[in-house]
């Protein structure tokens, strides 16, 4: 059964900038730059029939190209930090794209995503790292900003089960209106069964 989620890829210039945030937290597990992305809708472990239905449903989305910006560095977990991320600034087109995908997944009978949509790019996992070390890191990265980043497509990713962080495989890519479709070497229409 594939573990699926939809998301936005990060272009090379944004990846290079995000990579500059690495380091400074002993014990952190830094996400490989090729796996940087913004998750739109976690779908989870589904059977192959559901995976095909998801892929077909997503192909109905017709939205225009838009831009996002990365604005600030944050942490999930509070006093027990577990993830460091680059925040994605509020974007009505991004929120609308995510909301449409959420509605579609519920139409297919998948349960609602229990988490509120908080767009971000995870850059590190830091279980077992003290809140003080993370706070020092956050202070040193104040004022982080990058953008605009043009979003010309979203993708359906698959991943292996586990702690997260990749590797991720693009199963399908969905160009937005006015965007160009980029054929990836990793993409094979028959790979959704992987």
Largest sheet: 5 strands, antiparallel
Total strands: 9
Beta-strand percentage range: 25-35%
Count up the helices: 4
CATH fold node name: Cyclic Phosphodiesterase, Chain: A
Structural class by secondary-structure content: alpha+beta
Given this structure, which CATH class is correct? Alpha Beta
Taking all Cα atoms into account, the compactness measure Rg is 17 Å
CATH superfamily: Cyclic phosphodiesterase
Average pLDDT figure? 89
**CATH architecture descriptor text:** Alpha-Beta Complex
Low-confidence spans: 182-194
Widest sheet, order of strands: 2-6-5-4-7
The arrangement of helices and strands along the chain is EHEEHEEHEHEEE
Which overall shape is indicated by the principal axes computed on the Cα atoms? globular
Question: What's the gist of this structure?
Answer:
With 194 residues, this protein is of the alpha+beta class.
What does this structure look like?
The chain has 194 residues and is of the alpha+beta class. The protein has a single domain (3-193), classed as Alpha-Beta Complex (Cyclic Phosphodiesterase, Chain: A), CATH 3.90.1140. Helix content is 23%, strand content 32%. It is built from 4 helices and 9 strands. It has helices at residues 12-19, 48-58, 92-107, 131-140, and strands at 3-9, 29-30, 37-45, 66-76, 83-88, 120-125, 145-151, 153-159, 168-175. Strands 2-6-5-4-7 form a 5-stranded antiparallel sheet, covered by helices on one side. A 4-stranded antiparallel sheet has the order 3-1-8-9, covered by helices on one side. The protein starts with a strand and ends in a 19-residue tail after the last strand. The model is unreliable at 182-194 (pLDDT under 50).
């Amino acid at each position: 059964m594939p573990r699926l989620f939809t998301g936005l890829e990060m272009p090379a210039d944004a990846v290079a900038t995000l990579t500059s945030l690495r380091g400074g937290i002993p014990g952190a597990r830094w996400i490989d730059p090729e796996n940087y992305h913004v998750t739109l809708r976690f779908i989870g472990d589904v059977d192959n029939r559901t995976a095909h239905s998801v892929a077909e449903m997503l192909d109905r989305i017709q939205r225009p190209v838009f831009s996002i910006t990365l604005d600030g560095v944050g942490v999930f977990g509070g006093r027990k930090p577990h993830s460091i991320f680059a925040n994605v600034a509020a974007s009505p087109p991004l929120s609308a794209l995510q909301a449409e995908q959420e509605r579609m997944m519920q139409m297919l009978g998948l349960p609602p995503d229990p988490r509120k949509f908080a767009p971000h790019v995870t850059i590190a996992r830091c279980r077992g790292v003290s809140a003080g070390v993370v706070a020092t890191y956050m202070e040193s990265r104040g004022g982080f900003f990058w953008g605009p980043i043009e979003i010309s497509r979203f993708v359906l990713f698959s991943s292996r089960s586990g702690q997260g962080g990749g590797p991720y495989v693009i199963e399908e890519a969905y160009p937005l209106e006015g965007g160009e479709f980029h054929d990836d070497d990793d993409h094979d229409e028959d790979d959704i069964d992987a």
